[in-house]
Amino acid sequence: MGVVDDLVRARETFERGDWLAAFEAWTSHDLATLACDDLDELATAAFLLGRRRVTVDALQRAFTLHVESGQTAAAVRTAFRLCMTFDTSGEQTVGAGWSARARRMLADLDEDVVERGYVTYLQMHQRLAVGDFAGAASLAEAVVDIGRRHADPDLTAIGLASKGRLLLYAGQVPEGLAHFDEAMVGVAAGEVSPIFAGSVFCVMIEGCQEVSDLGRASAWTTALSRWCTTQPGLVAFTGQCAVHRGQIMRLHGKFALAVEEFDAAIERYVAAGTVEAAGLALAERGDVLQVLGDLDGAESSYDRAAEHGYEAQPGLALLWLAKGRITTAVAVIRRVLAEAGDPVHRCRVLPAAVEVLLAGGPDGLAEARTSAAELEAIAATFGCDALTAMAAHSRGRVELADGDASGALPYLRKATSLWAGMDAVHEVARVRVDVGQALRMMGDTESAERELSRARRTLRDLGAVLAAESVGRMLRPEGPPDGLTAREVEVLRLVSAGHSNAQIAADLVLSEKTVARHLSNIFTKLDVGSRTAAAAYAFEHHLV
């Protein structure tokens, strides 16, 4: 087959989306013999196949040809692509050089050219890198305007997706999601080129995960998976796709499959040199292992995530809690909350903060209530069912810890209903444990046993062994631990709820002197020296 036939075959297979066949046809010849259009398309095929070296070589050769032939606009577009290629492979310094070159060359062009939109997109990323979300949002809007004015579907779609993500960070979630939906119109219609389509998918799914719009995240993850499978040999975006599939499998309690997806994503990210993305996948893997009771495996995943520059929070704080390191967990979660500035990042931490702070005893109750109230306010603004479910569960836990079982139940019932509607079987089981405890506190022991039994069965079936064992201890109490009497357990529960000696005396119809004696005995038997330490013991041993 001759050179002309090879080039025809390369172009035809490229148009069909058969990247591997196109790549092989083009690379059967020296890059120096290829025209600019062929080099541009070869670079696209190579990028999608994960062949970074060929991508860079083809783009650099195309850039040289564009400059030599005086095609400045095409050279700017190619410099943009080189910048993005280096950025995605972790070589930001080299990428910054190409960004600067694109800006310099843009000055030689007319004011209103579509390439200005691509350079503006690079400037948007620079503002994001320094935390200037407002400046980035303004630039994203400019990207959309330029894309629409020049009828450029790639620029319009990525601009809409970027603006939508930034609206989420500004707390304007419905508006942000509307931008996502509009961006998806062009992708679904096949108007957007493959690299930009994959980028739009990932920006939107990540954004939906961040605000817990799990319905959209699930639907678009399915669409992304279908999009990936229609392209033979595709490597780009398959790591992200695996992460998103793992997240959806985790939601539905398919934990073993979720771990497999995260492992696949980690392997692809490490091979591609996308370090921070590998860290995210490792953190997600650690979260699932923690649910499965493999605390050492979870800690190992979190440590590896840190090595890749990703702090696995709030998972690590919950791990310390699971290991009984309550003081450490409380200190960590307070620090993480203090660092989370915008509503999107705070809503990812607040549910865990409530859980950890409550485990710290009565001193953490007020903080937990404040965190639960903030989560409720964010959920009301965002309007996403999963976040509303988290907020309801958190509020129910706070009321339960405060001794108000009847006040807790409506929130816990709401959380159960919302999670059940999403087929989030693990979350339903977790809420049912608290429902069972609330019913038991109200004296409805038969209903409590039913709820706890259902929860234990589900947790056991899902492989959440530690949680199932914990519920089993609630169902088959072995008697008060450490020699506590039944009355001392009652006193300890009220202490854990923050009640004073006088309040306990009134609740149990005892004298304050008797309550003080019980408390002294509790301190001695538990070898603790404060009400806070005694309350922490009660939470750790599931006495409250």
Descriptive report:
This protein has 544 residues and is mostly helical. Among the domains are: 226-312, Tetratricopeptide repeat domain (Serine Threonine Protein Phosphatase 5, Tetratricopeptide repeat), CATH 1.25.40.10; 389-475, Tetratricopeptide repeat domain (Serine Threonine Protein Phosphatase 5, Tetratricopeptide repeat, Alpha Horseshoe); 481-540, Arc Repressor Mutant, subunit A, CATH 1.10.10. Helices cover 78% and strands 0% of the residues. The protein has 29 helices and no strands. It has helices at residues 3-15, 19-27, 36-48, 52-68, 72-88, 92-106, 115-129, 133-149, 153-169, 173-188, 194-210, 214-229, 238-251, 255-272, 275-291, 295-307, 315-322, 326-339, 343-359, 365-382, 385-401, 405-421, 425-441, 445-462, 465-475, 486-496, 501-508, 512-526, 531-540. Helix 9 (153-169) packs antiparallel against helix 10. The longest helix has 18 residues, at 255-272. The mean pLDDT is 93.
* Total E-strand runs: 0
The count of helical stretches stands at 29
Return Rg in Å: 28 Å
**What sort of overall outline do the alpha carbons produce when their principal axes are compared?**
elongated
Please outline the major beta sheet: none
Query: If classified by CATH, what would the architecture of the domain at 226-312 be?
Result: Alpha Horseshoe
What would you give as the CATH superfamily of the domain at 226-312? Tetratricopeptide repeat domain
Average pLDDT rating: 93
CATH class of the domain at 226-312: Mainly Alpha
Estimate percent helicity: over 70%
